[in-house]
């Protein structure tokens, strides 16, 4: 049986969980053309995550990407988030048709892309193409 303090602690945790997913996106920088071009010029491995806050597939991809970004193999990966709803000019430039699109670059060269993939193994394989 929970006492009042334990109950309030569990309740607080339950109330906080729905807000925890945006913290996963903290590993990614908002996309700007200048930052993207600078990363390309430096030959960095780059991940572009096109997502929307209302997208369930994007929410499923977020913890997978967050886990990959904490993996030492991907320590040099530069990750950008493109907001599907507000960055239509970027979507046109990158030829993106829908949210939940992941694109990886090896410097200036696109190395691969996927759409609506939520399989951790195939997302990891895609991101590894940028290395």
Provide the descriptors you would attach to this structure in a database record:
globular; 43% helix; 5-stranded mixed sheet; 131 residues; alpha/beta; Glutaredoxin
Strand order of the largest sheet: 1-3-2-4-5
Identify the CATH architecture. Answer: 3-Layer(aba) Sandwich
Q: Spans of 5+ residues with little confidence (pLDDT < 50)?
A: 13-26
Spatial separation of the terminal alpha carbons: 51 Å
**What is the CATH topology classification name?**
Glutaredoxin
Overall residue-averaged pLDDT value: 85
CATH superfamily caption: Glutaredoxin
Order of helices and strands: HHEHEHEHEEH
Describe the global form.
globular
Instruction: Give the C-alpha Rg.
Output: 17 Å
**SS strand fraction:** 15-25%
Instruction: Kindly provide the name of the CATH class.
Output: Alpha Beta
- Count of discrete structural domains: 1
In DSSP terms, counting alpha (H) and pi (I) runs of 4 or more, how many helices? 6
Residue share in helix: 40-55%
Largest sheet: 5 strands, mixed
How does the helix and strand content classify structurally?
Answer: alpha/beta
Number of strands: 5
């Amino acid at each position: 049986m929970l006492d009042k303090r334990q109950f309030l602690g569990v309740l607080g945790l339950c109330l906080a969980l729905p807000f925890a997913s945006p913290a996963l996106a903290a590993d990614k920088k908002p996309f700007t053309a200048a930052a993207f071009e600078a990363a390309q010029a430096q030959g960095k491995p780059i991940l572009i995550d096109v997502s929307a806050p209302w997208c369930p597939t994007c929410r499923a991809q977020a913890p997978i990407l967050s886990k990959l970004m904490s993996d030492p193999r991907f320590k040099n990966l530069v990750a950008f988030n493109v907001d599907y709803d507000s960055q239509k000019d970027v979507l046109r430039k990158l030829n993106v048709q829908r949210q939940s699109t992941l694109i990886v670059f090896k410097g200036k060269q696109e190395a691969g892309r996927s759409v609506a993939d939520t399989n951790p193994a195939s997302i990891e394989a895609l991101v590894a193409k940028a290395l």
